[in-house]
Amino acid sequence: MARKAQSHLPQSIRLRSGNQMMAEGALQAGCMFFAGYPITPATGIFKTMIDLLPAKGGIALSAPDEISAIAYCIGASMRGSRSMTATSGPGWALMIESIQYALMTETPLVVSLVQRLGPSTGGATQGAQGDVLLAEFCTSGGYTLPVLCPTNASECYELTILAFTWAELLRMPVILLSDKETGMTIESVDFSSLPRSTAQNRPSNFAFRDLGTHNRTERKGTYYFDALHEIPPFAPVGGDRKVTATGSAHDKQGRLQKNSTETIDVLKHLEQKISWRRDDFVSVVSDLQPSATTLVVSYGVTARAARSAVQQARNAGERISLLVIHSLFPIPVKKLAHALQGVDTVLVAEENMSGLYRSVLERYCKGAKVRGVNKIGAMITPEEILEAVFEEPWQPA
Amino acid sequence: MEVVTTTNGMELVYQKPSTLTDTPFHYCPGCGHGVVHKLLMEVVEEMGIQEQTIGIAPVGCSVFAYNYMNVDMQEAAHGRAAAVATGVKRVFPDKYVFSYQGDGDLAAIGTGETIHTANRGENILVVFINNAIYGMTGGQMAPTTLLGMVTSTTPFGRQQAVMGFPLKITDLIAQLPGAYYVTRQAVHTTNAVRKTKKALRLALEYQPRKKGICFVEVVSNCPSGWKMTPVEANAWMEKNMFPMYPLGDLKVPQ
User: Fold this and answer.
1) CATH of domain B33-137+168-251
2) pLDDT of A164
3) Which of A87, A231, A283, A307 could form a disulfide with A327 if both were Cys (CB 3.0 to 4.6 A apart)?
C-alpha cells in the first residue's frame, strides 16, 4: 500500500517558480489589474494571475497582442488601479510605444520582462540576459526607467512589491527584468521569510514631504509641481476632478504644447523625479571582503553562479568581493563606489554577448580594470567566473 | 499505368511529395498541421511551381513549417506574415506567395495585417489553421476559442461577458472586396482532406489572375491543448467547432 511521503520541511516551504512568485508578489502589492498575451517564458505570470486575481476581486484579461495588453493596463492604472503586465523580448518590443506613453503621462505601471535569447523571435525556451539596455534605453530622449532584477523565486516576490512601490510613488513605469531560468525554475520558497508589506500608495491629494510632493490645490492641473523633482499628486481619470493626460509634450495642465518653457520643465521633471531620488531607490546585496582587490558584479540568474564562484575563490584563499545588483537602473552609484574601495579588478558576469551592463558600469569604475564574463546560449557557470578571476583554468580543490 | 517499384522490389503505391523534406513532423499525434503541410506541398508539386513558390511561416506551432516545406520560406515576426507576404509579392508579382498562419497569429496579434492585406486585394494565398487555441505556449485562449471552452487562461470556460465572442475572421474577410476566393475546410476525414486539397489547388491556380486574396481556413484540432486523444479531438471538433465555423465556400470567383 502506498504510503504518503512525510515531509520534514516546515509547512511554510513550498515549491514555486519565479513567475508564480512574481504573480503572488503582485497580489501582495495590491495589484488589481493584469493583462497579458501568451509568450514563453513569461506565460506563467499571465496564467497565475488569471487563476488568482479574479478571486481577489481584481481583473485579469487576455489581450489580442502585447500592444493591447499594456494599453489595457495603462487605462486601468489611470483610473487608479494598480496594474501589471508580463512579456518577453518580442512582446517587449511591441510594448515600448506604450511604455513611453506611461512615462510621459506619469502613469504607474509594472512590466515584467522575462528575457529569452534574442534578437527577434530568438529562442523562446533559451534563457538570456540580453535585454538590459533595451529595457532601460527604450525611450526617445533616454529617460531613466527603474529596472529591478531578481535572482531567484523569493526575490521575484520581494522585488515585485518594490516595483509597485516605486511605480506608485514615482508615478512611472517600472520594469521587472527577469530571465527564463529565474522565471521558470521551480524551487523551494520559504513563505515565512517573505515580506508581508504591501506597496505604498501613489501620492494623491496630500503631501509626501519626504518625496517632496507638493500639496495639490485646485486648478493647478494634472501635472502640477513646483520643483522639477516633485511628484504631481495623482487624480484618477473619471474622478471628481477634471484630468487631462496626453502622451504629447505638454504643460502642467496636460495640454499639448511644443517647446514652451513650462513644457520643457515637464520633460526635465520626468527625469528629475527619478534622478533626484536615485540613492533612495537602491536594492543591492553587498558581500564585501576587507582588502579585497577583485570585485565580482552580477545580476539575475548569473548572480547565483557568481555567489558560488566567490565562495569557492574565498575557500581557495582569494580575497574577493561580490556585488549583486537588483536595482540595475538607476545605477546604484554610491553602493558601487563603496564596493570599489581598494579594488583593482572588476568582473561583470552576465549572460549576453558583449557585456551590456558592463558597458554602462565602466564609467563608474575609474581606476579599476573592468573585464566581462560573458556567454550566450547557456548559463554562465561558477567555473567560468573562477577562470576569469584567476585568469587560468580552474582546478577545484 | 506504369508500376514503380522500390529498391526492395515492392510496388510503390503512395509517397510523400518531393516538395516535402525528409524531416519528420514535430507536431503532436492527431494534429492537423502535418496534413495541411502535405496537401499544400502536393499541390505545389502537382502544379510544378516549387521553384516559383515562396512561403511565409508564422510564430506558433507551425513556426517550423520551413523545416518541412521544401520551398523558399521566411518566418515572420508574430502576426506579421501577411504583411511580409505583401512585400514579397509586390517585388515578385509573378511568384506564388503564401502565408501559413494559426488563429493567434492571424486573428489576434496579426488582425490588422490580415484585414488590410485582404482589403488591398494582395494576390497571395493565406492558409489559416484554426484550432481555437494557442498550442505552442501551452493552450491559452485564442480569439477563435469557443464560448464555454476551457483553456489554460479560461479555466472556467470562455465567458462572453469577460472575453467576448469567438472571432469569425474568415467571414469578415469574405465581406471585403479585395477577397477573391474564401473558403473554410477541414482535414479530419478522407473526404474533408480531398476538399481541402482542391481548395488549396484552386487558390494557387487563381493567384496568377491577380484578382485578390485567396483565403483558405482549415478548421483543425489541438489534441494536446484540448487535453483529448486525437479521435476525441476530431469528434469534439465536429460537434462543437463546425456549428460555429461551418465548412464550405464563403466567396467564390464570379
Assistant:
1) 3.40.50.970
2) 95
3) A283
